[in-house]
Amino acid sequence: MEYIDIIIAAVSGGTLAQVFTYLIKRQEVKTDDFETIVAQWKEDNKRLREENDEHERRQNELYRRISELEQKISQLNTKLLIMESSYMHIPLPSWLKDIDGTMLALNDSYEKEFLLPSGLNRTDYIGKTDYAVWSEEIAKKFIDNDRKVLVSDKKTWFGKEEIIVNGIDVSQNWKVLKYVRYAGNVAVGIAGIAIPTK
């Protein structure tokens, strides 16, 4: 019986020792895992802070750029208003097209002399090309003369253009001056003034 108690005690003690050894090793593994997790967390936290700082820097740069662009838009709007008002009240028909031939603006005199008698108004023309208002043949001649202005050394053209208003040829009543409009050194369009010959 003593032998059995000794064997049981030995086996139990060995088992207990193994259980304690297992638990200690398990605790070490948990500690190692915890340290790994903390190290990973610190690394991720540092990376996220750096990314956040970069995003904040970019955001501030974009805010600054938006502010600059808003200021430029405001300046351009002011210049456009000045440019429009500079010929809107001229008592001669005046207009401004962009480089591609789209009508940007025309004054009251242009509308009164050339559009209203044909049942049209400025909204029929602004934002469109000459083909929206004039016959194909006349529109093509207008466009050809606009191109002459762009390629000429003086950047101007002065002469007669065929003008048909409500089916009546009024060409003999007008001479046309066309010239390049600039914003700084950049050509932004073709402007024109119709001058009465009488």
Brief sketch in words of this structure:
With 198 residues, this protein is an alpha+beta fold. The chain has helices at 2-88, 108-115, 136-151, and strands spanning 94-98, 103-106, 156-159, 164-165, 168-169, 174-183, 186-196. 56% of the residues lie in helices and 19% in strands.
Description:
Helix content is 56%, strand content 19%. It is an alpha+beta fold and 198 residues long. The protein has 2 domains: 88 residues; 108 residues, PAS domain (Beta-Lactamase). The strands form 2 sheets. Strands 2-1-7-6-3 form a 5-stranded antiparallel β-sheet, sandwiched between helices. A two-stranded antiparallel ribbon has the order 4-5. β1 and β2 form a beta hairpin. The N and C termini lie far apart (144 Å). The model has no long low-confidence stretch (mean pLDDT 84).
Explain the layout of strands and helices.
Blueprint (H helix, E strand, L loop, with lengths): L1 H87 L5 E5 L4 E4 L1 H8 L20 H16 L4 E4 L4 E2 L2 E2 L4 E10 L2 E11 L2
Antiparallel strand pairs: 1-2, 1-7, 3-6, 4-5, 6-7
Major beta-sheet overview = 5 strands, antiparallel
The strand line-up of the biggest sheet is 2-1-7-6-3
Work out the number of β strands. Answer: 7
CATH superfamily of the largest domain: PAS domain
Shape: rod-shaped
* Helix/strand order: HEEHHEEEEE
CATH C-level class of the largest domain: Alpha Beta
Coarse structural class: alpha+beta
Distance between the termini: 144 Å
| Beta-strand content estimate | 15-25%
CATH architecture tag of the largest domain: 2-Layer Sandwich
